[in-house]
């Protein structure tokens, strides 16, 4: 019998905003149901409605039954006995999800004591046990710590501990790993699996990450514009999607094991819930749209033999019959090849060169008399170069020094140590006028397209600003040209940023960066704030611009799948140092540094079969503080190789001697900073490979 | 933390010294206690006036810096000098501080407690009738100067008493000296009712506006939702998690109100005829009483800095995030 049964759930907010329009699903004991959708698709609202945690002005109808008991409309006195006991919830951002003024232990003990009659000291003990269960080291000490003293991954573990405190029947996880780094994400997903085994609970897993779902879920529900558009067992849905939106979504995600070349974009934007198109809400973006699609919204109807599968598309049988996939249906843009790349790399000009660059931050103490008590080794000697027409990606977990590197380059100021050479000019040896002139050639695109554009400036002024700053005259024509270049209509130049969607805003940011015809574009996580279906279009645009304009990119990202698509070369950073550098093919297919191997193996693949059989290299613990890095090799405290494969003498070398990046034998452009570098394949890991 | 607070304390001592010295200089160079003696009938001989003023360290014929040195030496030994007519400033201050304290203690605490409560309710019921009522009333109270409010209250009470034919609520003075024991205590409380209302109304209005904003900030946060998702009742989640966190910023305001409580409330004291610190400052300025003005200023500086110190302590006690550094 199913634990939770949701039927025709609708949620309407004041002003006629239909956030959820008829969602039905069931979750059974021990089952994981994945709910996938983009922002605004109503996936989170659905679960909040089940929990009865929506604001009072939301109108909820339909039915949600827990063990046959209706939850909707239930008295709050009854609901509090269910919340946290029968149904628990794990939220996305674990920092804001804990009350800042109480200790983690107290908050978990509180959850225990709400539902179980237990003395205070016993509940505190139970909290420590739970923290131990989710793998928090020294749980008795850490229980007395406050939320801000925990790292992101640790907080999410504690959140899971709190959610399973009362042995719930159902766990609702709302984007549980979205805010975390991939290696930490892999750890937390492992903990979730443990928690499920421990409690036997059903799980509703809400996320936009199709890779995470592939590895976790048994069944998947795809939501679009407040409605489920396709539902089925995970393998069926991933390998045989029968609704164009699902097909597009699966085809549009960049894959870490994928081929190079353009991604499949889904044109347009998701509709606003207050003004839905007539008929099928996906029709305006659907390449298979026919006139009938606009007549009425197709219901979610059972599909195919065996049951368990349902699809909301009038052409699903045709898709089945012809065996169509997303790549067949969605038009793939043709990106012209780059002219520059034909010249061998060694003969091309070098656009940017970093030579042992160092950036340290002093740690100060004291209110009046400041004194230095330490140093944050943010960037501690990194070396790389970018040739003309090339994309170098800088990857690594948060806190590894990527952003500091970018800032140092963009400042065009003399670095604390080493050299920064931009277009052949050493930043330490140029004067003010030269620096200003050089700024034309180096431009940046920021991560958050909303925060990077002045909301009170019309788009044409935003794009014209760099032009005017450098005294260009033909501003109007150039703005129109730039808008067209990034795929926006020049007629929209009078509009304000808030009138554009996230993807369009990022295009405006790119247009602004291109205004001065730079040679080097620095991209700081340019697509990580965008929805999956939008992301592909922006990645394609960046690729095209690079090829047609002969640009070079320095691309900072934490998403290694995006990097694989966009970059030619990749540098993996760890604690202010480069761990591994080389061409994308070499590094991804034959990673030699244990950190790169762990990083690559932690990325979930949107492929259920592979996810199930894949061996993961799990890293222990969190990134050490850059103020106090380990001696010798910085990675050794978390290194699986150091922990399991090396003998005492070999380990001593890791402790004493800091490895530098060394070219690997037999490779043209591939180096790793490891004393015991060894190339192995991890993305499609095989069984004969060492694990953990 | 202890070290940090000690250093703050040391800086505060310097600040008090600077503030007090400047205040003394200002008072000593602009006020003329001589005037109080010159206009008398029969006239007092100049030499006698000089002698008297010299005795009190108030003679404007002595250079300001010299008078300041004498005053400062006294202060360092705990002696604030003499009033214009030869009374001890120390005695006067000692008496008046406690008058002010008795007047303000209840009002300050009540104002904070009720204000925070109303503010929290107002935030939880945002845009509902309760919220609007509290909001409008707060602004009405804030818009009325305290002397108007106090006077209105006094007049209303006077009329009420007259209508009833006996004194239900006292509207002037601190106590009835003819009573003693338990009766006098009750009488003192009765005398407190009106000034407390007039004082706390203002702070209730003030705190309710501040607390409403703080609470609204916190209500939208995820941890309140988490608390409810754990199975806490709405009320418990709101008080234990939301209000507790939203109290931190209000604590600073409270610390300052509490610290400056000892310096009295000028208007309220004057209107209800309580002889506290606030009334003293006005009287002292009228009487050109240099040493009293300097003493009040000195004491106020100490109170303000003590309040800052108290606010540091309170915030550190309430907020674990600032405790680390």
Structure description:
The complex is a heterodimer of chains A (692) and B (325). With 692 residues, chain A is α/β, with parallel strands linked by helices. In chain A, the strands form four sheets. An eight-stranded mixed beta sheet of chain A has the order 6-7-8-3-9-10-12-11, with helices on both faces. Chain A has an eight-stranded mixed beta sheet with strand order 18-19-20-15-21-22-24-23, sandwiched between helices. In chain A, strands 2-1-4-5 form a four-stranded antiparallel beta sheet, covered by helices on one side. Chain A has 24 helices and 24 strands. In chain A, helix 3 packs parallel to helix 6. The C terminus of chain A is likely disordered. With 325 residues, chain B is mostly helical. Chain B has a domain of 224 residues: MetI-like (MetI-like fold, Orthogonal Bundle). Helix content of chain B is 77%, strand content 0%. At the A-B interface, helix 2 and helix 3 of A face helix 1, helix 9 and helix 10 of B.
Please estimate the helix content of chain B: over 70%
Instruction: Tally the helices of chain A.
Output: 24
- Biggest beta sheet summary of chain A: 8 strands, mixed
CATH top-level class of the domain at 100-323 in chain B? Mainly Alpha
Quaternary class: heterodimer
> Can you tell me the CATH topology of the domain at 100-323 in chain B?
MetI-like fold
The structural class of chain A is alpha/beta
Q: What does this entry show, briefly?
A:
Chain B: It is found in: Cell membrane. With 692 residues, chain A is an alpha/beta fold. Helices cover 32% and strands 22% of the residues of chain A.
List keywords for this structure.
heterodimer, A: 692 residues, alpha/beta, Rossmann fold, 8-stranded mixed beta sheet, 24 strands, disordered C terminus, B: 325 residues, mainly alpha, MetI-like fold, 14 helices, 0% strand, globular, P-loop_NTPase (chain A)
